[in-house]
Design a protein that fits this description.
globular; 83 residues; alpha+beta; 34% strand
Amino acid sequence: MSSEIKMSVSSMTRTKDSKAVYVMFSDNEKTAEFSLPGVNLISNRGFSDEEIDQLKDYINNEADSIYALAKQVNPMKAFMGDR
């Protein structure tokens, strides 16, 4: 796995019964998307099983930080290209 993996975090989304955050990792042509809580793999294009396990471990270890990032995301600003 390259040392240049990019991570994107969604804002907190809500359904009737639960809240979720989506985390995407990209490394050149590879992408993987997960949802929290539960660290569920939604999609994978190119990452090996070992790499997916490493990404899951990262998410588990950094869940608090990921949730904190998600709370700071403003969907409208992100849509408009602002940070």
